[in-house]
């Protein structure tokens, strides 16, 4: 028989240390100033949350129109369904807050996913209920399909609204968000904030250094040095000269270390530009650079509208049964236009008989008036239907 080997049992140390922890040779004050630890949530980063809030507020401020495809173009439909989506999609939220919740959840808390459960009664939409990200899970079902678990209950994707941001490469139906792309820059921004805060609160920034003879009994103790400052340095008026004994001590002026010397401001601005580039917003939204109208308008068309289009299509394919109906965000109010530019467009369209007077007034934000619902052209602004009745076209002068 083989002799059983006795297992060596080693007592565990009382104070466990993680081998991955770093070691610092510095004072406790310097340690608190130069280091920051712990998980940095994207929702707690001022720059990231400011950028996300800007995108969410812009999309939430756009009205949602229910449109219908017709032979001559798209026509707006106004009924109870359009009012429900545009005014009060949730019984406890306005459309503004509802859309802001969807965008914020997709970009931050939901890691690219936002789930909304539509409550219906006899085929009529009653409420759109937002589902907190912690209560929703996505479970693959076979090779191509998936189920959505809401508080333990499984639902088909057709039964809920699933808004996706940045579809994943492995599961295209599931969003990936910006957690991985922004995690490093969020940690760097937190480190910069902690360093700046610790530097501003640090007391080791003297503007003067007084060199004294420590061998002298009078200056050896803290009380003696305080008496020295009270006797020779403290003055009754600002700018009054100091009278000091040259044999006992000397005074040197030093320049304290500033944040510019650390190049902290440049690093923070670079990180802000990185955040702006990842989220697709202009850098001046985060306080870097100056406002540019063309850049803002490009931001609306290339970043805001694709996100809004994502919400439009999900609402259209899940909530509408009529194939000729669709939802559309009205983006014209988001573009940065001068009132003079709007007035010139309205005038030219009115003079060419393309817009009625009331449509031109609505274009510049004015209320309609009676008698301005006919199309007119520049020739004495007569009705378009009576252009052929002019006397000069029928042999008259």
Please tag this protein with its features.
single chain; 397 residues; alpha+beta; 3-stranded antiparallel β-sheet; 11 helices; 11 strands; disordered N terminus
Write the layout of secondary structure elements.
Blueprint: H1 28-34, H2 46-61, E1 64-70, E2 73-77, H3 80-86, H4 95-109, E3 113-121, E4 124-131, E5 136-141, E6 145-150, E7 153-155, E8 161-164, H5 179-201, E9 208-212, H6 217-220, H7 222-233, E10 249-253, H8 264-279, H9 293-319, E11 325-329, H10 339-351, H11 357-363
Antiparallel strand pairs: 1-2, 1-11, 3-4, 3-8, 5-6, 6-7, 9-10
Helix pairs in contact: 2-4, 2-8, 5-8, 10-11
Descriptive report:
This protein has a three-stranded antiparallel β-sheet with strand order 2-1-11. The protein has helices at residues 28-34, 46-61, 80-86, 95-109, 179-201, 217-220, 222-233, 264-279, 293-319, 339-351, 357-363; strands at residues 64-70, 73-77, 113-121, 124-131, 136-141, 145-150, 153-155, 161-164, 208-212, 249-253, 325-329. The protein is α+β, with helices and mostly antiparallel strands and 397 residues long. Residues 1-22 and 31-39 have low confidence and may be disordered. The chain is flat, with a radius of gyration of 34 Å.
């Amino acid at each position: 028989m083989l002799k059983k080997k006795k297992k060596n049992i080693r007592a565990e140390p009382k104070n466990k240390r993680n081998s991955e922890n770093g070691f610092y040779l510095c004072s406790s004050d310097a340690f608190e100033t130069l280091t920051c630890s712990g998980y940095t949530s994207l929702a707690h980063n001022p720059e990231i949350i400011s950028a996300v809030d800007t995108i969410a507020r812009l999309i939430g401020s756009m009205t949602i129109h229910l449109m219908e495809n017709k032979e001559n173009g798209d026509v707006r439909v106004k009924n109870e369904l359009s009012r429900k989506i545009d005014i009060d999609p949730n019984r406890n939220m306005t459309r503004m807050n509802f859309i802001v919740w969807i965008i914020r959840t997709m970009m931050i808390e939901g890691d690219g996913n936002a789930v909304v459960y539509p409550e219906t009664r006899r085929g009529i939409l009653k409420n759109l209920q937002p589902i907190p990200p912690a209560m929703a899970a996505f479970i693959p079902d076979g090779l191509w399909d998936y189920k959505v678990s809401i508080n333990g209950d499984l639902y088909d994707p057709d039964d809920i609204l699933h808004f996706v941001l940045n579809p994943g490469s492995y599961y295209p139906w599931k969003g990936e968000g910006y957690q991985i792309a922004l995690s490093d820059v969020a940690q760097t921004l937190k480190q910069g904030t902690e360093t700046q805060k610790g530097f501003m609160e640090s007391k080791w920034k003297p503007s003067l250094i007084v060199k004294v003879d420590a061998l002298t009994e009078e200056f050896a103790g803290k009380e003696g040095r305080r008496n020295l400052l009270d006797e020779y340095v403290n003055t009754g008026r600002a700018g009054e000269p100091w009278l000091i004994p040259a044999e006992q001590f000397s005074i040197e002026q030093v320049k304290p270390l500033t944040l510019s010397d650390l190049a902290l401001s440049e690093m923070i601005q670079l990180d802000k530009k990185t955040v702006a580039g990842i989220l697709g917003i202009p850098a001046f939204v985060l306080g870097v650079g100056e406002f540019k109208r063309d850049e803002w308008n490009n931001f609306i068309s290339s970043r805001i509208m694709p996100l809004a289009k994502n919400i439009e299509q999900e609402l259209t394919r899940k909530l509408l049964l009529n194939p000729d109906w669709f939802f559309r965000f009205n983006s014209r109010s988001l573009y940065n236009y001068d009132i003079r530019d709007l007035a010139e467009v309205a005038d030219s369209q009115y003079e060419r008989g393309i817009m009625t007077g009331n449509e031109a007034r609505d274009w510049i934000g004015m209320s309609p008036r009676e008698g301005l619902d006919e199309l007119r052209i520049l020739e004495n602004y007569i009705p378009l239907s009576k252009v052929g009745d002019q006397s000069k076209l029928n042999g008259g002068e």
